[in-house]
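EI: anyone free to look at a 337-residue chain?
SC: sure, send it
EI:
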Amino acid sequence: MLEKNNIQMIEEIKEVIINSRNKISYEINNTMLLAYWNVGRIIVENEQNGNIKAEYGKQIMKELSKELRKILGTGFSVSNLFNMRKLYVIYPKFQTLSGKLSWSHYCELLSIENDDERSFYEKECVNSNWSVRELKRQLETSLFERLLLSDGKNNKEKVYELSKVGQTLAKPDDLLKEPYVFEFLDIKESKPILEKDLERKLVKHMEEFLLELGKGFMFVGTQQRITLGNTHYYVDMVFYNKILKCYVLIDLKIGQMKPEYAGQMNMYLNYYNEEINDEFDNKPIGIILCKSKKEVAMEYALGGLENNVFASTYTYYIPNKEVLINEVEKILNEKNI
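SC: here you go
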């Protein structure tokens, strides 16, 4: 068995090596980004101030790609060269690029035309340490639009906040999305499913589910029992959010939201607030996930409750991004923003 001093020595050596590897990886990545940025700069500066016609520009890129691949090997396809050019155009100052993100990250980000949306995903990649795979998934499921639709109270300030700092968790409703997307469950939209089966599938795909829930979530358990008098109740899923420092209770419903669901969740939250919370925990949050909801009915069902009770919908397939964008624009226009 290792002595205490040896264990400490091993930990110190491990920390030195890991930090060195991370530093080397960062420097290599930053050097590659700078190289590709400079390739983009050279292309732009040789385009006669950008006055080259589109078709002629494509032809130049094809010829450039052909020659560079002969000299330098793979990595200089036409699409990659266009991305390098776009990298320089969108980020004319190299210092604004994050060395924490890879070229593959930026290739995905460059496909986003809206500056606010691109900035949001870039910030989230850095803040949440998303892999390229996770970034692709969040892009496909339109996280930016879903966060803007989460409370139906969109304004320019929220768009600005998302674009400048990413998703922040300062208050309970910052957790919400509309809708939640469970495409990773591979459930056919027309196929009937029981609530217990939906819960079981979410547990089986917990890694993807935690990513969909967002930042700071830790899984506590399913079917958490609450006993009041001689009656047992069960909360479908319980999480703890380490950023907001509170329990998050989730009830799964396979149909439309009903007012009585809010009353039941309110009861659960009262119990957690009195019996489960420690002195350093904030008030628990309850989220009722259902297939559909009527906004007017929800205002009456959820209005006036002292606890943090929210209702949101979920879907088994990736939503149409154009529909989400139209919904965002509709709410912004209604508020004359």
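EI: Residues 169 and 175 are 7 Å apart (CA to CA).
SC: 👍
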